[in-house]
Write a structure and sequence with these properties.
Blueprint lengths: L1 H8 L3 H10 L1 H32 L20 H32 L5 H14 L3 H15 L6 H25 L3 H9 L4 H12 L1 H17 L2 H6 L17 H10 L4 H37 L1
Helix pairs in contact: 2-3, 3-13, 4-7, 4-10, 4-12, 5-7, 6-7, 7-10, 8-9, 9-13, 10-13, 12-13
């Protein structure tokens, strides 16, 4: 089998071209794949370069003052609020999402109708526009629960938004763990709970953190839902019931005012940096957890 694979990998260009002539559909699919990759990379590079070119020249010390005024248009309160609301949203959504995925994969019977309903519901929730989540959060958390326009109301709304992403990604990561891991753990006398926490979750940690990183990206870039739930007040939130704006909302407000378009581009640069830093930290934590799980197994 290995020799056959090596033969396929070492085919000359003429041999591959002859294979594509015999099967034109494979050539068409290959070209579509390359084209899609090129378009995606081009758009990504264009967006990043455009933001950096327009935003970096407008970065100045006054944008990092602790207090926001109409003169300095500081984004420091928005940066702090973005980090705070990201942490709060993950605190609510990650335990619930991972717990739900563990139940669906490890405890629920295979072929259970409830599992299928939950999966369809999660996929449906993923496609709902963020403005709908914002209206729901304003009515339920803000009005019904009397939380008002506050940091906690925005965090709970975002937690509901990213919950399906974390749950489905974690479920796929758990399903990718070979059954031999479970059978080996049970054969050594470990119980189901110990097997889950010491064997299965460490083996799936990279996939789990991929879902968390996707959730962080959606939190950091969200504005429509937060305008209705967290508000647009430009100060550092000192309590969970304070109204506060995040970086994305800060950008939206500034871009709507023709006087602060340059500052909005500068805020976009900082938003990219904040998201990259959070993703980098998440990746380091995932590597550490994975290494810890491997050492524990050894």
């Amino acid at each position: 089998m290995s020799k056959k694979k090596e033969g396929i990998n070492t085919l000359s260009f003429s041999d591959r071209l002859q294979g594509y002539r015999n099967d034109p559909l494979s050539f068409v699919l290959m070209m579509i794949t390359y084209l899609a990759t090129a378009v995606t990379m081009t758009v990504l590079l264009f967006v990043v370069i455009y933001i950096l070119v327009k935003g970096i020249p407008n970065l100045k010390p006054s944008l990092f003052d602790w207090k926001y005024t109409s003169d300095n248009v500081s984004m420091m309160p928005a940066i702090i609020n973005t980090i705070t609301i990201t942490i709060l949203s993950l605190m609510f959504s990650v335990p619930v999402g991972i717990g739900a995925a563990v139940y669906l994969c490890e405890y629920a019977k295979r072929g259970n109708k409830l599992v299928g309903i939950v999966r369809i519901t999660a996929e449906t929730l993923t496609g709902i526009p963020s403005i709908v989540y914002g209206l729901f959060g304003a009515l339920f958390f803000g009005t019904f629960l009397h939380l008002g326009t506050s940091l906690i109301s925005g965090a709970l709304t975002l937690a509901i938004m990213i919950l399906p992403v974390i749950m489905r990604t974690t479920e796929e990561a758990l399903l990718a763990v070979p059954d031999s891991y479970r059978e080996g753990s049970y054969g050594l006398g470990a119980g189901r709970l110990r097997t889950i926490f010491r064997v299965i979750l460490p083996a799936a940690v990279s996939g789990i953190f991929s879902g968390i990183v996707l959730g962080i990206g959606r939190i950091a870039g969200e504005s429509a839902a937060l305008i209705y739930t967290a508000g647009t007040f430009a100060k550092v939130a000192t309590t969970l019931h304070d109204s506060a704006r995040t970086l994305s909302v800060h950008m939206y407000v500034l871009s709507g005012e023709s006087l602060y378009v340059n500052e909005a581009y500068a805020s976009a640069v900082m938003l990219l940096i904040v998201v990259l830093c959070i993703n980098f930290i998440s990746g380091k934590i995932a590597d550490k957890v994975a290494k810890g799980g491997t050492n524990g197994e050894n």
